[in-house]
Automatic annotation (TrEMBL), chain A:
It is a multi-pass membrane protein. The lineage of its organism: Bacteria, Bacillati, Actinomycetota, Actinomycetes, Propionibacteriales. Its main location: membrane. This is Cellobiose transport system permease protein. It holds the Pfam family BPD_transp_1.
From TrEMBL, chain B:
The chain crosses the membrane at residues 34-58, 94-115, 127-148, 229-249, 288-308. Residues 90-304 form the ABC transmembrane type-1 domain. Residues 9-21 have a biased composition (Low complexity). PROSITE patterns: ABC_TM1. It holds the Pfam family BPD_transp_1. Keywords: Cell membrane, Membrane, Transmembrane, Transmembrane helix, Transport. This is Cellobiose transport system permease protein. It is found in: Cell membrane. SUPFAM superfamilies: MetI-like (SSF161098).
Length: 275, 332
């Protein structure tokens, strides 16, 4: 064997080993969610699947209202994604294709807000939500993030690069106002950027933990993440059920990521290089 | 960060409507544009700026969230400076950050380098490596908790099978820190590898080809060519992992609970903020911790910024220098 073949083989083995390490915890999660708690605690650990998945899921639904948490999480994630896509693209379109007094100042202010660290104002944000009467409700998770600087900046870059001025001009000549032009020229041309922003926002909202943990003071309103942490700390002895719950909270997300992975990965990487 | 503000191309005839920079128009004719950008600023004022101002005020008070707000001046900060639990949290955060960041970035670099070879199924690999990054940290912290469990965990079972003593991963000082670091490494190595891969693809291939022609091996190319040219991208990943490391919360909270486990070995700064504000209902002290965290983050930002500035002032000449020296080193 030549040196070249050996080095190729080593490369492949290393890359595959990395994949194994990445994916193994998922496999282990699935395996545990199909076993009884006694089997999970057994020695040596059983690395294969068991027949208990349905029992575990039934038990987790009995312990916490996982179906309702799933429903709420879908609402929060979808509403966040749609609102962010709408408000961010509207602002990005105005910034990219129109000039108006104060535009530069507003845009610089927008960029500056990106430097504000998120965890700084957990306490006062919670106090504000209590005063608004939003603590324990879903709008506390949706409304504050309904438009964000990151998305506006990203979509503005997309719009500046991909929407020709001529199209905007001709829409205007045809008698379309700003909002009409945004809807018929801006939105269709921004489809790629919007897809990325939508998936990104959906995944972030789905996984958000600190803020729901703080603001969802009413135990009847839970997202998957807070329900799961309750399940883990309160019903932790029923390990099979906890793992089944974790599986339910992950599967939809992984599905969405794999469907949208093309847009997602490329844009994350591009964003890092430009940044 | 690229800060190119759009200016419309000059030479447009006045009056071509919205796009052109016409003669002075009354402000109200721009209402659709202002309406379009307004939601963000409104939301930021109410849910971003106001809470921050309020948080400064709260950090000078003693308040349990329900009773009267009592103004105490600098007392919370004075307490913070002499609070061993706070300094323990700062130390833990920095130790875990170091334990995670150094191996993570190194592994990511190696992975990206390997993936950059003309390898098959590259996009499938990218998906597999990215998967940990998009998953719920609550769910995965529970999984890692079982993998590293003291009595029945996979890791300890494997150690026993190999004849090595079990390690009390979740009940000893270093065990806790290493377990949290492993979770961070697992989650972010693939993400950073994808970023590096994108950076590698931006490096002209001629550099590699000529190095290969000169007979350089993989390791030589990696250390003398790839790493120096990737420096800006590496800095980006250092900055993002610093921000992420300083705000570590979910992993220790789900794994160890609100008190950070044995001897508070997994108590991070944000977890301590949460602990003081939302389990002890000490809103004033919680706000003071938040501002202390902000100052620490600021110090790191300044360090990062200086690193970036030093690099960018002479980056082009340095790049030429690096290429020259590596060529020389390789041919020797």
């Amino acid at each position: 064997m030549t040196v070249r073949v050996v080095s190729r083989l080593v490369t492949h083995l290393c890359v595959l080993f990395g994949v194994l390490l990445s994916v193994f915890p998922f496999y282990w999660l699935v395996a545990m969610s199909t076993q009884t708690t006694a089997e999970i605690f057994g020695y040596p650990p059983r690395l294969t699947f068991g027949p208990e998945l349905l029992t575990n899921i039934r038990s987790v639904i009995h312990n916490v209202d996982l179906i309702q948490a799933l429903f709420y999480t879908v609402i929060v994630s979808a509403a966040s994604a749609l609102l962010v896509m709408f408000f961010d693209s509207l602002a990005a379109f105005a910034f990219a294709k129109y000039s108006f007094p104060g535009k530069s100042v507003l845009f610089v202010a927008l960029l500056v807000t990106m430097l504000v660290p998120g965890n700084l104002s957990l306490v006062p944000s919670f106090v504000l939500m209590s005063h608004l009467g939003w603590a324990g409700s879903l709008q506390a998770l949706i409304i504050p993030g309904a438009a964000n600087a990151f998305g506006i900046f990203l979509l503005r870059q997309f719009a500046a690069g991909s929407i020709p001025d001529e199209l905007v001009d001709s829409a205007r000549i045809d008698g379309a106002g700003f909002f009409r032009t945004y809807w018929s020229v801006g939105v269709p041309m921004l489809r790629g950027g919007l897809a990325f922003l939508g998936i990104f926002t959906f995944i972030s909202a789905w996984n958000d933990y600190v803020w729901p943990l703080i603001v969802l003071v009413n135990p009847r309103v839970q997202t998957l993440q807070t329900a799961l942490s309750t399940l883990n700390s309160v019903y932790g002895t029923d390990y099979g059920a906890v793992m089944a719950g974790a599986l339910v909270s992950l599967l939809p997300l992984i599905g969405i990521f794999i469907i949208g992975s093309r847009h997602f990965i490329a844009n994350i990487a591009a964003g890092a290089l430009k940044g | 960060m690229t800060l190119s503000l759009t200016t419309q191309p000059a030479g447009r005839t006045a009056g071509t409507g919205a796009v052109a920079r016409g003669p002075r128009r009354p402000l109200r004719s721009f209402w659709p544009q202002y309406l379009a950008v307004a939601p963000f600023y409104l939301l930021f004022l109410i849910f971003g700026l106001f809470p921050i101002g309020f948080s400064i005020y709260l950090s000078f008070t003693d308040w349990d969230g329900i009773g009267k707000i009592k103004f105490v001046g600098l007392a919370q900060y004075q307490y913070l400076i002499s609070d061993p639990r706070f300094w323990n949290a700062v130390g833990n955060t920095l130790v875990i950050w170091l334990l995670a960041t150094v191996p993570m970035l190194f592994l990511a670099l190696v992975l990206a380098f390997l993936l950059h070879q003309n390898i098959r199924f590259k996009s499938a690999y990218r998906v597999a490596y990215f998967l940990p990054n998009v998953t719920s940290m609550v769910a995965m912290a529970i999984v890692f908790g079982s993998v590293f469990s003291d009595s029945f965990g996979l890791v300890n079972s494997a150690l026993t099978a190999l004849g090595v003593n079990e390690v009390p991963w979740l009940s000893s000082n270093w065990g806790i820190k290493i377990t949290i670091a492993v979770m961070v490494i697992w989650r972010w190595t693939g993400y950073n590898a994808i970023i590096y891969l994108a950076g590698l693809q931006a490096i002209p291939t001629e550099l590699y080809e000529s190095a290969r022609v000169d007979g350089a091996g993989n390791w030589h190319i990696f250390s003398k060519l790839t790493v120096p040219l990737l420096r800006p991208v590496i800095l980006f990943t250092v900055i993002t992992s610093t921000i992420g490391g300083l705000s570590l919360f979910t992993e220790p909270q789900v794994l160890l609970g609100n008190n950070g486990g044995t001897d508070e070995a997994g108590m991070t700064i944000v977890l301590y903020q949460y602990n003081q504000a939302f389990t002890q209902f000490d809103f004033g002290y919680g706000s003071a911790i938040a501002w202390a965290l902000f100052i620490i983050a600021l110090v790191f930002a300044v360090i990062n910024w200086r690193l970036v500035r030093e690099r960018s002032t002479d980056s082009s000449s340095q790049r030429r220098l690096w290429t020259a020296t590596t060529r020389k080193g390789i041919t020797r």
